[in-house]
Amino acid sequence: MAEEQPKKDLRIKSHVYDGMVRSPNRAMMRATGMTDADFKKPLVGIISAWAENTPCNMHLHDFGNVAKASVQDAGGWPVSFGTITVSDGIAMGTPGMNYSLPSRDIIADSVETAVGGHNCDALITIGGCDKNMPGSLIGMANADIPAIFVYGGTISPGKLDGKDIDLISVFEAVGQWNNGDMSAEEVRAIECNACPGPGGCGGMYTANTMASAIEALGMSLPGSANHPANTAAKKQDVADAGQAVLNLLEKNIRPSDILTRDAFENALTLVMALGGSTNSTLHLLAIAHAANVDLTLEDFNTFQKKVPHIADLKPSGQYVFEDLYNAGGVSAVLKYLYENGYIHGDCLTVTGKTMAENLATVPSLKPGQKVIMPLDHPKRPDGPLIILKGNLASEGAVVKVSGVKKRHHEGPAKVFNNEEDAIEAVLANKVVDGDVLVVRFVGPKGGPGMPEMLSLSGILVGKGQGESVALLTDGRFSGGSHGLVVGHIAPEAQDAGNIAYLHDGDTVVIDIDTRELTMKVSDEELAKRKAATTIPPLYTRGVLGKYAHLVPSSAKGAVTDFWKKNE
Predict the structure, then answer these.
(1) Burial class for 298, CB neighbours closer than 10 Å (0-12, 13-18, 19+)
(2) What distance in Å separates the CA atoms of residue 376 and residue 397, rounded to the nearest whole number?
(3) Residues near 524 by Cβ (< 8 Å), separated by ≥ 6?
(4) Phi/psi at 482 (nearest 5 deg)?
(5) Coil, strand, or helix at residue 414?
(6) Which of 71, 128, 390, 457 lies 20 to 30 angstroms, CA to CA, from 24?
(7) What pLDDT is stored for residue 8 in this prediction?
(8) What are the residues facing 507 on neighbouring strands?
(9) How far apart are CA 42 and CA 31, in angstroms?
(10) What are the phi and psi torsion angles at 124 (to 5°)?
(11) DSSP states of 195-251 as a string?
(12) What pLDDT does 7 receive?
């Protein structure tokens, strides 16, 4: 029986392998199993961020095989690739954390390079944690071939003494142990039960924030954000992507058709409503940059003012992401927001339909669920991510105020040039209530790589100082961080931002209502300090050296090709 051919030639790029001159190219491709009939099928790249070193991604190899089979069944020729992953939770508080944010752009470059170098016609990426998800989207936007992202799914919560626990429980337990409120045996029990299997960290942390944002952008299938890793629904989500990407080829729908300004507004709306991670600012700015969409930090303030925070999710709430799935899921939240005028319904999505058409068939939030609050009785009347500015952050800084009751903090600075020294001071009880703990020279250039401070913020919360001590940094925080934490201060110290000239004892003011972050140091005194301070040279070796020399401000998304804005 003759092999079934696609109804029409769906190839966008792989036709370059046609003709006599390309006989050598085809000879190599035949070794991979391709036949004469297969050369007429579209080449679909399948990129999995599988890695054995993290629960977020350890199951993605099998999902890659599911996607491969689904592409074959749909009439395409799948070509599997891999890409790297750095696990924030494992790297946290170690030198490995410097590689985390740079890995996002390495992933993006590897996605674009893999499908560009092999002239793929379409792309499916499967990711499971903080950087491989935005990295995939940046790569998709730059490649601009029909593409779908599939989330590997959230981890189920750990269980201990009848309560849900997760990775953040372990970080905070260290602070409780240091404070004398928990024994070493109790910490070990939490450690051994917090992560029961595969999937991204289980609260409204960065992985689940980005999965939600990507669905709101229209770049994943409805429900993909919220299907837990260990469910049949998640496996079906992966399988559905094969048919869906062939449909995108049929209709020639590309990321540039989906990633519009309105799509990013939908993502901002959902992130605010769900109480997403501060890292969403970096990643959405970077994806928008790749998609040639004008998005700035000020847009986050615009949507913060008009979108209520309605999700009672960890780290500041009581529920985990799997609870949201059981309440109806991210798609049901999008439907609820759309029905109340918060979502642009005419945005195109990877189904080939508009957001409104997708949501028309989505079930509503389940009656009686407790995870999502009513819009007229929200967790807070506006969003939890606020951009602060002032003489300590002229380009901006990001604070997440979900669960934080304090609106104003004024206190003396205790300044450290690395996280390790700051942690040592906190554990030695040298940081007291009212202090402003500052960690600088850890920004995109200075880190280099803008490491997260979850170890430090978790210890403060565990010691009961989550709001009594303010924590400021030109680095960043995990999506699991909470308390009075202000990150992404720009310009960073390495770029001669004023945070470089802050001294111990200087008064720092954080005001949520006026959106200000200031240091009470006169311009004259600042000028003297600048003249007397030498900024250390940029790191020069290897990938971190390249990153330090290429990366701009965090206020610009910490991308590595910022010059294209000026072309």
Answers:
(1) exposed
(2) 29
(3) none
(4) -150, 175
(5) strand
(6) 71
(7) 86
(8) 412
(9) 18
(10) -120, 130
(11) --SSSB-SSSSHHHHHHHHHHHHT-S-TTTTTS-TTSHHHHHHHHHHHHHHHHHHHH
(12) 66
CA 74 distance to own-chain centroid: 31
Tokens 């030695």, located at residue: 428
| Dist. CA 209–CA 202, nearest whole Å | 11
Q: Identify the H or E element spanning 164.
A: strand 163-165
Token reading at 221? 């299938």
What's the pLDDT tens digit per position in 29-88? 999 999 999 999 999 999 999 999 899 999 999 999 999 999 999 999 999 999 999 988
- Burial letters 331-360, b for 16+ CB under 10 A, else e: bbbbbbbbeeebbbbebbbbbeebbeebbe
Residue 88 structure tokens: 């924030």
Contact status, residue 483 vs residue 460, Cβ threshold 8 Å: yes
pLDDT at residue 346 in the model: 98
Residue 514, sorted as left (phi over 0), alpha (psi -120 to 50) or beta, turns out to be: alpha
- As given in the structure block, the two tokens for residue 386 are 């606020």
Instruction: Give whole-number Cα distances, 321 to 26, 157, 172, 329, in Å.
Output: 46, 9, 19, 9
Residue of 80, 457, 468, 478 marked active site: 478
Q: Which residue has the tokens 């491709």?
A: 29
Which amino acid, 413?
A
Q: How far apart, in whole angstroms, are the C-alpha atoms of residue 265 and residue 270?
A: 9
Which pair of structure tokens corresponds to residue 193?
Answer: 């039960």
Residue 364 among the catalytic residues: no
Closest Cα partner for 48 from 151, 117, 141?
A: 151
> Quick one: tokens of 247?
């449909």
DSSP symbol at 390: E
The closest alpha carbon to 552, from 491, 504, 508, 503, belongs to 491
DSSP 426-491: HHTT-S-TT-EEEE-S-STTTTTS--B-HHHHHHHHHTT-TTTSEEEESSB--TT--SSEEEEEES
Look at the pTM and tell me if it is higher than 0.85: yes
pLDDT of residue 567: 46
- The radius of gyration of the chain's CA atoms, rounded to the nearest angstrom, is 24
385 phi and psi angles, rounded to 5 deg: -100, 115
Residue reference for tokens 């009785």: 377
| Rounded Cα gap, residues 220 and 151, in angstroms | 8
Contact indicator for 372, 340 with CB cutoff of 8 Å: no
